[in-house]
Structures are given as structure tokens and as C-alpha cells.
């Protein structure tokens, strides 16, 4: 009783201090707001004490200082599209939402860079760069909604990362507010910088090292030409084999996306992209570069597809048709709402030569648990996105989903894969970390975290499994492992 | 000075445990191609990685190669070349894979192939106190935990001994062509605008070299654009890039990095032995001695938002302080608690 009063006081005092800086309208504490910010796009439901919506670097610094002073953990949040629970707050957290910091600060084509605030949306940035003949290459499927700050946190990917690389390859520098409230610029506008690559550590750290308040991103020249092709196959195996054959032929397409029948049917109903709904699987391949490069790559891709018994080929005749082909792909996750009200999306990576056997294994797991499974994924990278559709209101369903999910993860790891290709570990996968890392590996990772955040204030309970700690520092991520576990909501399969 | 030449990863683990226990300071060396980079430091022994040179796993259809860090770049190029692939770092053949990564050296084709860091998918590292730590994964895409392997790139052997790495490799271009024309940085900037997606554009004091790589029809298309932009240009296929490196004729070589548009400001007054990667912001500058000219160059680089470490000969890294020094110190303390790995060699006296 006494303890809870103390903590209510603490939150009340923090709220007062925040309201002084941000004004009452940008500090949220009403039950509805707290419920809204208690989760991201993952299946996990958390809880928080306060939500702050700063609009400047100084205000973020103030938020971080107030949280430190009153002992509240900080959970940075962008657009909340994360699928692993990285932005799901746990316990008495202050959620720092960066969506109001949404200005593109400068575009410098001659330096091939742009400075943006964290709340800038991915697609808005790409559109702003196009008139200069450049783009921002990482293009997550949620790009209309997701923010650059969130992309940095999760080292986001997207279909075009096959040729262009993930977010980490496109972030030159970040301005980071450290957990003690100091502001540092990590990385440089120049191609190399003094010191360890702390920027490299921050990208993909899921908001656990500080709050990113600005990012300097690399501009990628828009290719002079591109071609989008759609292939369809009678078997999933032929489709997967085509992916390996393309890569083996010496072509690295801009994107290679695979969709199986279940998702093709759902996406077609939604997007009317003209997908062949009777195919076992379709493959979207985009090649780009100079006109000559496009011709040469197209030939090799066609040859690889034909050698693997592709049934038909459709080449986008113009930009409208290309957009339509991509619309089907990028809206696939929305389209699955037709199958069932809830879905659980995976993000494992396997060596691309293992795609066919792993897919076969995934179908078998789904069948065993009586679940509907569809697959739409970045085949060129070996980045699988098995999607389990279900109705969590039906008793026992969620448990079956979680058990099937764990088997899928184990299958991918056994094939030599990684736990996440682009969504991150967050809350959902942290207890799987020992499947791919030794205790010593995890200790080293804990030390990286502790170097930035010795007191464990930033987004606690994320990424590392309970108990992983850096021996050299007086810090424990399971500081209160038991307490944290008790607070974890039901349905979190951690 | 003592020499330690481990045969295996467990050897390295044992060596470092013992060295930490006895406070024996070590300098990690591979092929010595990048050994000059770093501030002067005193050590008791050198640890050579060159016997850790096995090709651990290589599946061409994955475009991933797993190799011992002591493998020579030339040997790796041969192994990959047999399958029509390359690790695009363009380091000297005697350099080791681990050395290139520890030095974070830039390729002349960085405009198209990116930085070394972007090719390093997984690193196995033996920390200063002899713990074997793996970070990353053998897949091209991965967000699984903290990227210790990113911190290791360019760390000059001060966080641990890189013993094994997984590299992202790429198809060898079908055709490689160099277009050379009289000119300088201004002409090079024009060429970068005029030629679609070149592999590299190098400005020399009196010349421009444009590297074109890819499918034959692509290279032909690019060549036409280059010839239209650069009157009097000459074309040569399958020659090394760059075709000459005047900076290497001087005893001190700086690898400066500034935002790309500021290269002219850096190069004004940099003498006559340099080459600069237009659109990238890297410049190699040859000097006669680590004297006033180096100091001035560093001041200019700093004023332009960049750095100017020496990569060959004496002169060290310079005075530039790393950001978030407290974070740097905690990292160093965690990975090398006894401080035995080349103390003082790194930026900020680490």
C-alpha cells in the first residue's frame, strides 16, 4: 500500500515536471491514452504511467532528465508499427513519442545526405528526395506509416534491401540523447569518423541505448531504369529454387519477393493486382540500374525462372502496372484480416538455399496445430515472414499459435538462420536469444548496452533475456527479473 | 619483442587469458598492410593471426563466405573468383581479412560497393581477457541483439582479436573498364553527374579516372556518357583501379574523410600527391613527413567536419576526440578489462 502510494507520488511529480516543459496538452496520463500507448503492433500488451509528445531536441532531453530524476524507465516510440514489442512499455514507464518531431531538416544532394527528425515517415522522406534524383533505400512494407526513428531502432529492412542493404547501411550519423540526458552526435557526415562505430551499435538497438532525436541518412541515386516482373509456379519448391538460381547466375536483383497461394488469394481480393490465384506461389522480381543493366539482368532472371518451370511471366508495362504489382505485395498484411481477425507474423532469416525445406517444415507445423498459415516474404534475403491467422477469442487458440511459433523459430535456427531479419527481438523473442547465442555472447551484448545505459533506464526488459548481464558493471537487466516477469502480460510468449 | 603465432582459436583464447592475467600488452597483426594506422603504442609482444587462415564455409548461392581472420585477401579473392564472386575491399593481396576489417580501410570503389562495415555479417572475437564472443549471423539480413561486430570494424585491434568472420560477397562484374581524362576535381564532379551509376570516380590533381563495372551493355552505355562529358578521354578494359596512386610514392599517407562536397576545400593546399573519391568524401594524400603539413591538413579536415588519420608511415590518428567518451571507455573496459590490447593506439587514447 505504502509502496504504491510512493510510486503514485513519483508519477505525479514526474507529470508535473513534464507539464512544465511540454504544457499539459502534450503530457498524457488519462486511462484511454495510457491504454493506447500500452502496445505497439505486436501481440503483447503492456502498460505505462505517462506519455510525452516532445517536439524538439530540448524537450526530449527534458523528458529523459525528468524520467531519470523520478526513477521512471523510458520507452522511445515512433509510429508504433513494430511487430516484436520493442515499443511496448512495461510497468511504470514514460513513453516518449517522437512523431511530433517530423521535419526534414536538410537535404544535401551534393553530400548525398539528409538530416531528418525521428518522426519523419519513411515514404515521406523517399518522396521528398525524388525531385533531387535520389531516394532513401530501405522501404519497409509499413513505409506509409513507420517513422525513420523507428526504422533506426529496428534496423528496418524492406523488399529493396536485397540490393541496397538494410537501414544500418544508410544511416551515417545519429543525434542521440543518452539515458543521463546528454546529447551526442554519433557517426559523421563524412564517410569515416573518430572512435568506435557507436552509430552502428545504436542502429537496431530497439530504443535501449538512448532516444534518437535526428538521423543523418545516406541518399541513394534513383536508378535510371527498372523492370518489375511477376512469375508464377505450380510448386513452392520451384519458386524457391528460382530464387537460388537467380543469385547463382550472378544477378543481385533490387528485390525478390515470394508469396504463397494463401496470401496471393487474400491480397488479390484486396488489391486487385491481377495476381494468378491458382498458382502455388508467385515471385515478384525487380531489377534496376542503367538501361543496359536492366536488360542483361532481366534475361538472366527469365532464364532462371524458365529453368525452374515457371508457368507464366508478366512484365510491368508501365509505372501504373508496377505500382499495382507492388500494391498487392505491400498490402498483404492488411489483406489477411479477411482470413481471421488476428495474426502473428514471424521474421526469421534462413540461408536462401534452405528456403524450400524450411517452408515445407513450416507448412507441416501449421497443419499439426490446425492453424492457417500464409507466407509473403523477402525471398532474396532468405527473410521469411510466416503469418499465422487466428481468432484469439476462441479458447485455446492463442496457446496453439504460441507453440507453433516456437517450433517455427526452432526450425529456422536449426537451418542456420537468425531470429529476426528486420523486426527485431523486442519482448517477443528475447527468451529465444539463447538459441542463437552463448552466455558469453549475451554478456558481451549486455556490456554494449551497459556502456550506454549503466543504470538500465532505457526500454528495460527488451532484447536481452532475463538474467543476461554485464559482469563488469553494477547493472542487471533482470534487475528485477522476477518482478518484470510478474508484470508481463498474458499472451506474451517470451 | 616477442612473437605469438597461434594455430587455432583456442590458442588465441588461451594466449589472451594469460596475457591479461600477466598484464602483457599485445599488438594484433595480420598481413601488416594496415599496421601503421593508429597512434604509437608500447607493447610486449605481437600476436600474428596469419595461421587462422581457413576457408570455413562458402556457399556461392548464399553470397556469404566464412573465413579465418588471418586469411590473406589475395587467397580469398582466388577462392571466390573461382565462383565468379568477390569481397569488394580492394586491399593489397598480402593484407588479411581481419586486418582490413580492424583498419576499416576504404575501397576505391566505395561509391558503389559501400564501406567494409557493410560487408561484415558476423564476427567471432576473442576479447582482451580471453572470452570467445560471436555477434551477427551468417545471413545477409539480421537484427538479433546488439551488433558487437559493428564496433569491431575500425577498432584497430583494441577491443579483441578478430578470429573468424562471415562476409557478404558479391558477383564479379562481367566487365571492368576505366575511362581516364585530363582534368581535376571539377571535371570529376561533372563526370559523377553525367555518368549513370559509376563504380567509382577518382579525382587526381590533373586527371580523372572513372571506373565502370557491370554487364557489357551497361558499361557501354556508361562509357558513352563518360566520353560525352570528358573530351579527350581514353578507355581501357580490365586494368587495376586506380591505375596509379601518386600518394603511395610519399612516405606518409593520410586517408582523410570529409563530407563529399567539401573535398575541394580539403585538397586546396594538400600538395600534388593525392587522389580523392568524388561523391564519397575519401581522399588519400601523400606527405613527405608527419610535420606541419599534416597538422594543417588535420585542422582543415576538422574544420570541414572530417578526420585525417595516417594510414601509412608515422603520424598516428590525430587529436580528434571520439564522441561520448564515457561510452567508449566503458566499452574498452568491458572488452579489454586489463587494458592489454595496444593501449593508446585508438582514438581518444584508448
Structural features, described:
The complex is a heterodimer of chains A (494) and B (350). Chain A has 494 residues and is an alpha+beta fold. Helices cover 36% and strands 18% of the residues of chain A. Chain A has 17 helices and 18 strands. A 7-stranded antiparallel β-sheet of chain A has the order 15-12-14-13-17-18-16, sandwiched between helices. Chain A has a 5-stranded antiparallel β-sheet with strand order 5-6-10-8-9. In chain A, strands 1-2-4-3 form a 4-stranded mixed β-sheet. Chain A starts with a helix and ends in a 7-residue tail after the last helix. Chain B has 350 residues and is α+β, with helices and mostly antiparallel strands. Chain B has 3 domains: 2-171 and 329-349, 2-Layer Sandwich (Uridine Diphospho-n-acetylenolpyruvylglucosamine Reductase, domain 3), CATH 3.30.465; 175-237, Alpha-Beta Plaits (2-Layer Sandwich), CATH 3.30.70; 246-312, Alpha-Beta Plaits. Chain B contains 10 helices and 18 strands. In chain B, strands 14-11-13-12-16-17-15-18 form an 8-stranded antiparallel β-sheet. A 5-stranded antiparallel β-sheet of chain B has the order 4-5-9-7-8. In chain B, strands 1-3-2 form a 3-stranded parallel β-sheet, with no helix packed on it. The chains are: A alpha+beta (494), B alpha+beta (350). At the A-B interface, strand 9, helix 7, helix 8, helix 10 and helix 16 of A face strand 8, helix 5, strand 10, helix 7 and helix 10 of B.
Kindly report the spatial arrangement of strands forming the biggest sheet of chain B: 14-11-13-12-16-17-15-18
Summarize model confidence as the mean pLDDT of chain B: 96
Which spans of chain B of ≥5 residues are poorly predicted at pLDDT below 50? none
Structural category of chain A is: alpha+beta
CATH first level of the largest domain in chain A: which class?
A: Alpha Beta
Corresponding CATH architecture of the largest domain in chain B:
2-Layer Sandwich
Number of strands of chain A: 18
Order of helices and strands of chain B: EHEEEEHEHHEEHEEEHEEHEEHEEHEH
Total DSSP helices of chain B: 10
Number of domains of chain B: 3
Q: What CATH architecture label of the largest domain in chain A applies? A: 2-Layer Sandwich
Q: From the structure provided, what is the oligomeric state, counting identical versus distinct chains?
A: heterodimer
The CATH topology assignment of the largest domain in chain B is Uridine Diphospho-n-acetylenolpyruvylglucosamine Reductase, domain 3
